[in-house]
Amino acid sequence: MSTNSQHIALLNDLIQTLKDGQAGFKAAADDVDSHEIRTLFNTLVLQRSKFAGALQALAQSQGESQPETGGSVSGALHRGWIDLKAALTSKDEHAILAECERGEDSAVAHYREALDSEDLPSNVREIIADQFVEIKEAHDKVRDLRDALAVK
Fold this sequence. Notes:
By secondary structure, this protein is mainly α. It has five helices and no strands. The chain has helices at residues 3-30, 35-61, 73-88, 93-115, 122-150. It is elongated. The relative contact order is 0.17.
């Protein structure tokens, strides 16, 4: 596989990760009563959409005629687990936050893996690195909210 093809595959993988997160946060926002948590989740839905759009444009600039537009199969299974967990625990916000944090662990790992890739063009690396900072911040906010609910 050529280097450019590898870059496009990497971008498409990150787009799927972002779309998974977008759908997961949307489902989670619908299952929480807390205004604070719902607002955070809805903010993250918009963030993931914006990030995915930026990576789709970047993939097109690298020669991809049809960048990813959806999530992954494993992401769909993860979202289904969130729905099941929420139903089984009567909308237990701690459990929902725990599952969202698990999803964020995956996003952080995908971004780290992408940044570990050799020979990324500087413009691609810069955008991924900028997004990674915000992905990590989102992870930490979700984790902190989960931990705060655990002590109540």
